[in-house]
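Hi,

I'm pasting everything inline rather than attaching a file, because the server keeps stripping attachments. The sequence lines come first, and each chain or strand is labelled.
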Amino acid sequence: MEASETFGVSGFGAASTPRSLEASSPRYGEKIIKGLLALCAIVSVLTTTGIVISLLLPTISFFGEVSPTDFFFHSDWAPTFSPATFGVLSIVIGTLSTTLWGMLFAVPIGLGIAIWLSEYASPRGRKIVKPVIEVLAGIPTVAIGLFAITALKPFLENIIPALQSTPFAAGVAGVAIGLMITPIIASISDDAMRSVPGGLREAAYGLGSTRMKVATKVVVPAAMSGIVASIVLAGSRAIGETMIVLLAAGSQATTSFAFTSPVQTMTAFIGTTATGDIGTGTITYDTIFAVGSVLFVMTLVMNVFAIRLVRRFREVYE
Amino acid sequence: MNALKRPGSERTRLATAGAKAVTINALSKQPAKDRILGNVFFAVLLLAVTIALIGLGALVVQAFIEGGPRFNIGLFTNPPSSLNVEDAGFRPALMGTLYLILGVIVLIVPLGVGSAIYLEEYADGNRWWNKMIELNIQNLAGVPSIIYGILGLAFIVRGPLDLGFILAAGSLTLALLVLPVVILAAREALRAVPPSVREGSLALGATQWQTIRKQVLPAAIPGVATGVILAISRAIGETAPLLLVGATTFVTFNPTFFGENFSALPVLIFQYASRPQEEFKVLAAAGVIVMLIVLLAMNSFAVWLRNRYEQQW
Amino acid sequence: MTSGVNGQTTQIEPKDEMTLTPEPSQEKGLSQQIAVTAEPAREGADVWNKEKVFEVSGVTVSYAGKAAVKDVTMDIYKNEVTALIGPSGCGKSTLLRCLNRMNDLVASATVEGEIRYHGHDLYGPKVDPVQVRKMIGMVFQKPNPFPKSIYDNIAFGPRVLGMKDIDERVEKALRGAALWDEVKDRLKDNAYGMSGGQQQRLCIARTMAVDPEVILMDEPCSALDPISTGKIEDLMTELKEEFSIVIVTHNMQQAARVSDKTAFLIVELDSTENNRWGQLVEYDETEKVFTNPQDPRTEDYVTGKVG
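And the predicted assembly:
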């Protein structure tokens, strides 16, 4: 008897419908669909490849003209001038300055919100506040930038009068960036703290601990990897921010970490230069990509680190 | 962090630390001090929450106060102008954003849902290439948006695709930027469909694709739709990549999909905001109001969608 | 079984008659501790000479290299209810899922030995699992209706299989599952609004709607209340007129009530007690298994001496 033979099946009702154990057609449709879907997924790989290639080639060409020591270890940054200098440190410092001012704002506030949400807030309070914080995360950065120059700066001038003498300031941009990244820290740290098992808290409460002690000595240490991950992710986001710094921090490549000093960040440089009329293949054009590479590598390292941490804290408690 | 390597002992350690702290506390002489400290701590936390809420509130209120007086129908119907501030509007930018978003939707729905279906339903999670795809998507979600602008500039506008500084190139760039959002949301939605539904379908003699198309995907649509709306919200507000792929010309006429002169709402807001004159900043604020209203409408729709159609398993 | 060179298809008709010699009337076992209410073998029919649906030979199923059930050999007959009973972990469900190749869905599962369906190797190289499942349906332990209307639940199978006359099929299936009168006025309602017992009957109707030959049931009543259980057990007795049923059950009284033949499996441990697997101990007519078992282990189990 052969496998291709059909079976008389006495199905109920109508006459039996002969069926075979083999597929009646090779079902190419299924295979094609699987292939198409895989192709969709590969788009993401192509995107990354595209990013790497588009950054890499001009960067290589750039380092053909400019020595890496000049680039990485000097801070006189004037690539569009003649004679052009390419010490990238000043715009790196610019990025770090705005980022650090931002973190100075966002870390305590974000953590404070997270601790309140997970340890103190009533379910109703949580229901109201958490979505509102998420709304903050969805505000377009250009709106935050506009807010920074029209409202935040005048407000901060009352506290720091020195701000009045300069139209652009790293600190103003920093605080605005801080406002933007606070939801990241708040949200992820809150998730991390909530996934600490209730049993740990109960053990501490049962022994008479105050809520503050439980929060600070039990929950926060237990959720530390998630909290650190949230901070790193927020930092990565701050480093990559463009519009706020374009509007509020300026385009002067100083090397100052001061609150009141204008700075140019890596992103601002790219944003300003790449929209100008720069010919392709010139050194100035390649500079955009060289700076882009630095930016990409910095954020990539931070993101990979943070993703690992998040995976670890999920593993431990789930 | 390295203490988390051994969860069991970590829990014991924490519980013991808690017990020790409490015992010392109980035996020490100043319980009142603790209560005060606890209250101060609570006040500090509330302060943090308040500052964030005030920050958000100030942002929104400020935009409305500043831009409110300028908010009239002319914003929507007039072209921009650098000379005649009184009559300047956002029309080409609004149309530009609309066209851009249409292009984004056309791209992200098939690509995003397709990727998610492949990763959730077909891919064997242990194969290295599938793991790499997953890692890739996670990393792409964290790449700064201006880098996507660089990708667009080098690959789409120039380079292999060489489309030129056209609106479609902007759509493609934005689509790649928000694709991880859609993939993530779609995967969550697919994952939420219990395996018993798939088993029941397969046991009847349906093929895998039939099962996905007629059972799993329909059940996952509310979650997928929410993800698409979130992605669009993100794309509407993105400025930096568009600056790099050509949305900077101060256009006064309506855009076309494959035309070179296009603008977008956030880009025009940025251009107005960069000007020193106060009137332009007011105009920019008015533009922000428009953008915020659009975003609020979309997100409310997403919330409504989720509440109305979410499947209780 | 290899397919022939010329690939011809020939029709196999189910056997119309049994060529048998009449049996002498059954001797009832002396110990009647368990009331056997299932019909004893029909008068004049040799229950071991009927048409076979499945021939299971030396089947061992392993997950990731560890055996879950070892070396099962038994034949399953047409238009009967065959029960698989035994303690937890003896591999009853594992064995059942081999019969319609649902174990294919588990990546780490391997099946050794041979399972023949009407003489054809179920795991042959050219065999398509999708086709197999069209002929061998399954009802699961926890009722799993689709998140659709009652009508669409039943209609889904016929639709994807390209059958016609969907309305008639739906009604027939619902009547066959004794559900029609309860739901005929609310076919468009969501299936999730039904009670657990109704949902399970819906799942049975859904399986019936695609005209399978065999219906496998994996502890279909274990999540249901006694009244629903009773309804489904009555259903099984009717269904075996049209279908062949293989049921896995934890409840041996249920097996005694509904099945014609019963297979009893146990859990074996190796010397280190780290590995456990299932083993078939006895397979016989239900009445014999419960009133006059051959193996002392069977006797211990059916009399409730061991769990």
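Confidence is low (pLDDT under 50) at residues 1-44 of chain C.

If the labels don't parse on your end, tell me and I'll reformat.
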